[in-house]
Fold this sequence. Notes:
about 120 residues; alpha+beta; ADP-ribosylation fold; three-stranded antiparallel beta sheet; 8 strands; about 20% helix; DUF952
Amino acid sequence: MADAVIYKIAGRQEWAAAEAAGRFDGAAIDLADGYIHFSTAGQVAETAARHFAGRDDLVLVAVDTAAIAAALKYEPSRGGALFPHLYGPLPLSAVIVVNALPLGADGRHDFSGLLP
């Protein structure tokens, strides 16, 4: 797998703390699992629906996979699909852009203009 960009959904406060620290070590689930969970462009909407439903305090972080390739592995997860997992902290230098991830009128997260 060679996605050029992968995505992390994070809470605004959580991401602000990462920016202050200069790196993102992961959310509570990431720390518990031993790696940072990411999604591809084709997976991220389902990830939002399953794990972040109804939250209006989120950001979508786009990450350049070339910058973290040495610590990035694609491993089976939901239904056997391969998901990107980062074994180590996410350096902010690998972040391409951080955007607000709003809820749409239907209550689902609106990815309009955020994904290729």
